Structures are given as structure tokens and as C-alpha cells.
């Protein structure tokens, strides 16, 4: 059994084997079949000694942006380090390749390693741009070809993920924490681990993924789910109520008793009726606080409990409404049919994410006529917008007898001010916020400080402002200054646009927990890196296409980043390896690769060679940075770009150019290889 096989566990996943760990499934057979069949054809053709150069690059930046973060180099180098076909690999290939494949070829594969390969690359964590190769591979044609698919799969998602994370970091700002919560939504366990690793590279502060924390030394963070809150029905279920004082030995307090005492006081301070507070929620929070008194962070949007005094219509949905419960279309119809046909604005039920009495449960809007629509996760702060949307939805559905009354109600509600809307929204937040503050004050009496709250639904901007105002009021009333600094975490299907909108609304959120949109890169699920042959035995090769974007730039090239006098990156310059590098203070002619009229002289204040040799003679030739250093490199590299290159809306394209020599070389080769048509 080979050394590689002994390093893999039964499932072939990440193994503890060094600085940032190598994924056990990354091995020579993690490739496309045609790479191996091409290798056999090369071998049959006597091309084993042919020397090749391949460029790995991408053609356009992701997410409608103008930059990409290069990531995945570490895994590529670990792959080269361990490249070897095991005995079981060879046996499998003997059974898989067509009959007639010569045995000598399998012997050749069995002896194949990456020792004759040289790999040039830009530093991991560096900002990269289209057409500039981020990796160059030179070496024997067969082994260089066999590396293609594996290198692409290691770089494509890593760079896409790091770029996505970097964009989230930019829109959130440096003072807001970002946590990756996407494991359950990721494309399988390997995708989940990679997402955790490269979101941290791109600027996130931690992950909920425990295995990623162990393997990559990423801070692990988390709270609890709605299930924990709903698992308690009342305070009588509490098995443990006592908690030792943190600072005073021998002193033990009844945390539940203290919490109930503070809840009564807070009821007056916060103007929240005791009847609007869930006993089961209080029990769950007390239980969790006893388990984690120094790390108490509570989910506060599980229940909406409506005061019985306001439940004048017995058919309305009152008492405990579990926000996260899944509601089916048939259930929605039944609930709707039970509602009174005599609708007035005081009888409309309020739930955790509700606007104007329209129940929003798990993303569904229930209309009085029994139809439902899917909606976005956030409650709109514009009453007029919600009125228009609901009017349109009702018009599109089958009319019910009470539609006119519903329209009349909506018309009255649309005249309300934003403050009245906020008052209704506030009701959906009361139980959790009241119970959290009560438990946090109880913890304070025993020498502990709570961490904060998590909001997972509703109008995140408004609710975060309400929570911050509440904490400040409690801090002043009870003389507990650390209450002012309680952390507010927001989750619930957050994407880049959500954060931008929240910024405009003046939110008070300290931390975002982001999952689906981050790890799946929903705006663009693939980066599209390619791996192209550009030179064979010293002869340049060019791929021609009617689509100019797909025409490759031939030959072995070097890349330089030229900086302006203000210190920002100005342009990337590609030139032949035989050319003299550009010099500081010397005029350089930079040309567009394919448009003759686009050219400019540049006098750089700094010249940065982009490539280093990372692999040569069978070993890694550079000291590889830790994940923390790569993470720092990302932010330093982004700072070299002008803000207009990084803005989310209509960013300015960054310029990539070629030298005059390379420009002429490309176009001469193009003309030599392009077929000449014939007219008749």
C-alpha cells in the first residue's frame, strides 16, 4: 500500500498531515478520463520527452465585479508533492481503459511523479485579473496534461469562494463580524469544508463548521436553533436552576428565580405585558444560560405571544405562534378560512414576521382569500410597497366574498406612519427580548456577562435598532454598562444586497451569520478557469476562435503589476520571458491584446513581478504562508486597488495589457494559423 493510501482514512477526507492539511480525495485519479486517454495517445506517439508550457487563467471576473482573489495554491502544491499512481490505481486503470492498451503504459504511469514539473504562480491571496495566468506549468507534456483537471478543481472553487467572501467583507465593513454558517447548504461535505476554509481566507471571522475549525484552525462560533427553545414548554420542565457565582466561592443562586424577578421589573421598563412572554422560551434561555453562563447568546425570535386582552376575535391566531413552523398550502387555506370576514385593523393577528396582519411563516404570505405567495425574508419598511404588492396578489387570485373589506382594511393601513408599522413589528420581538434581558440581568447578579442575541427573521434593520435601544435603556435603568455592548447577530438568508440595504437603513447589527448565498455562490456558481497549452518544445501555440475572448495568448510569458504614483495598482503587463522587465520611472508602452487602437504609455512608480517558482525538482521551493497570513494578504492586496475597481455597482474595469513585442507576436502567429477563405 502506498504512502498516499495510508494517509487517507476510510472516507478519503481531510487528514491531519501538516500546515493546512491536504484533502485525501485529491489524488491522480481525481481527473477526467480523457486526460488519461490523451496521455496514452501521447505515449503511443513517442511524445514522452516533449516539453510543454500550460497557462491556468480565467476569462472574466465573477459576481459582475472587477477583481478575483487567487486561492487554492497550497492544495495544488500538496497535490504535486503526493502525485503518484498507487498499485490499486493502476489495477483500476487496467480494468477501465480499452482492451489493447499496452502493459508498458501502465508501467510508465506507475513510475510517474511530478519531479520534472516546474510550477510558477502568483502568491495565494493576491488580487488577480482576467487573462493573466495565475499558474504556469512547464514540464513533460504527459505529466503536465495529467495535472489539468485536478489543478482546475483545486483553484476554481477556492478562488470563487475567497472572492465571494471578500466582497461580503467589503460591503459589511471592517467593524462588523462575519460568520460562515453554510455547511448544511453546501454542495456536500467536501464543499462545506472548502467553503469554511476559503471564506475565512476571504475575510470572514469564523465558521460554524467544527471540523473546519479543527483542520484549519479557524475560530468556531455558534448559538442554538429554534428547536432548543421549542423543546421547553414551561418553567416546570427545568431540571437545573442553580448556578454558582463566578467570583464568590460558596455562593449559589437560583437563576430562574432571579430571571422571573427581573422579568417583572423589565415588563414595566420595556412596556411589555407579562402575558406577552413565553414561559417555555424563558425556561429554555435559563437552561442554556446555566450550561454556558460566560457564552450566553440567545435566539430571540422563536415566539410571538399575543396578549389575551387584545384577542377580541376567537378565530384569530393568538397565543404561541412558532415562527419557524412549516406551513403547507392546505394549512394556509384552512387558517385563512377561519379568519373573521369582518376584518378590522385591531383584530389582525401579529406574528414574528408580519406586516399589516398578513401572516408570514417560513417565507409564505397567507392572504384572506386562501392563496399564498412566496416572499423575501425581510419585512419591507415601506407600507405603500406592501399594500401595492398585496393588492396585486389579490387581484391575480380568485376573489372571495370578503375581498372588498380586506382592501378597505389595507387602504386604511396604508395611511399609517412608519412608526405605527414599527409598533406592530415590535410586538413580534417582545417575548424573546424580554426573556433574554431578564436572564442576562440574572446572570449579572451571579458575576457573568451575557454575549448577545441572534435575530433570524423579520425586519433586521428595525429589529436591530429596537434591540440596541432596549439594551441601552436596560443598561441605564439597572446600571449595567456592559449591556450597551451586547452583540446583535443577524442571520436568515442574507446576501450581499441585503447587507447593502441594511447599511442604508442604519442597522445596529454587530455580526452577520451567512450561509446559503455565501457557500453556494448563488450569483455565479463557477469561476470558469481554463488550462491551455501555450508552448510545446519551444514553439508557441495559439487557440483561435471566432469569439476573441477565447483566443489564447501564446508562448511562455511573464507578468508584472505596474503601480501609479499614488500607490495604487494601475495596470498588469504581460510580456515574453525573453523581454527585459519594465523598470521604475521608465516609459512602457502597454497595449490591449486584441484592439490595435487601445494603447498607452505608462511610467510606473513601482514594478511588481507577479510570478514565483513554487515547485521545482520535485519539491516546494517557497516557504508557504499559514492560512492567517494568506488571509492578511487578501486584505493587503485589495487595498492596492482603487475604490472604483472595488465598488459593487458598475465598477471600473482594471486594465490588463501586453507589451508591444508580445502584441506583434500574437497577431503574427494569429495570421499564420488562421485559415484563408476562398470566394467563388
TrEMBL record:
GO molecular function list: nicotinate phosphoribosyltransferase activity; transferase activity
Q: Which GO terms describe its cellular component?
A: cytosol
Q: What is its EC number?
A: 6.3.4.21
All residue ranges annotated as the Nicotinate/nicotinamide phosphoribosyltransferase domain in the record: 451-552
Catalytic activity reads:
5-phospho-alpha-D-ribose 1-diphosphate + nicotinate + ATP + H2O = nicotinate beta-D-ribonucleotide + ADP + phosphate + diphosphate
Instruction: Enumerate the Pfam families for this protein.
Output: NAPRTase, NAPRTase_C, NAPRTase_N
Instruction: Locate the coiled-coil region(s) and give their ranges.
Output: none
Q: Which NCBIfam families match?
A: NAPRTase_put
Q: What does this protein do?
A: Catalyzes the first step in the biosynthesis of NAD from nicotinic acid, the ATP-dependent synthesis of beta-nicotinate D-ribonucleotide from nicotinate and 5-phospho-D-ribose 1-phosphate. Helps prevent cellular oxidative stress via its role in NAD biosynthesis.
Instruction: Give the protein name, as stated in the record.
Output: Nicotinate phosphoribosyltransferase
Give the source species: Glossina austeni (Savannah tsetse fly)
